[in-house]
Structure formats: C-alpha cells, structure tokens
Design goal:
The chain is an all-alpha fold. It has helices spanning 5-13, 35-45, 62-70. It has a domain at 5-45.
C-alpha cells in the first residue's frame, strides 16, 4: 500500500497518546489479576477444550549439562577418574575480609 505523507502521518498519530495519558498494555480478559479465569470463560463460550496442563521438568544440574556437552563428568575424581567428588564442608568467609556494602536507600 502506498500512502501520501500526510495520510501516513495522520494514521501514525492515531497511535500517539495525548499528554497526561498512560497506555494500558493489558486490559480486559488479558489483565493479570483474573487472566486465568477470564481465559477459561472465553474458552467455554467458544466451546474450546481446556488446555492440557504442562508437565514441568526440573532443570538439569550444571554438572549433568556439562557431561552431556563435553563427555567428561565434573563429579568424577580429576586424578583417578573413578571415584566421585563429594562436598564435605563449606568454609566460612575469612573474618578480616571486607564485604561490599549495598546501598538500601
């Protein structure tokens, strides 16, 4: 479609809000508060089947993903490659080390 410059500007400015107005992105059945209930009602009125619930799969641990990508296990002992690395203890931070302070204002 080819438009004159004036017609293009007129159509473009139909989308510009006057000063003092706030654009509301989701209003009506797409509003956050009752979206699930309203979409269910829309499906009911349109005689659509309810969507099947999605099965959430727990994300893989970074060690498993690394093993899939590289073929080497981060859990295996780096020396003998037979035993498994086990976390025995976590050392606390050094008492003299200064930590960065965060501004909470």
């Amino acid at each position: 479609m080819t438009l004159d410059a004036e017609e293009f500007i007129r159509r473009f400015l139909l989308h510009v809000l006057p000063d003092g107005f706030q654009r509301i992105r989701y209003y009506g059945f797409l509003g956050n508060r009752y979206r699930e209930e309203k979409l269910a009602r829309c499906r009911e009125l349109l005689n659509m089947p309810a969507p099947e619930p999605q099965v959430l799969v727990a994300p893989k641990d970074y060690r498993d993903r690394c093993e899939e990508l590289t073929g080497t296990s981060l859990r295996a002992c780096p020396v003998c490659h037979e035993g498994h690395m086990v976390s025995v203890a976590t050392l606390p931070p050094h008492p003299n080390r200064q930590t960065a302070t965060t501004d909470t204002s």
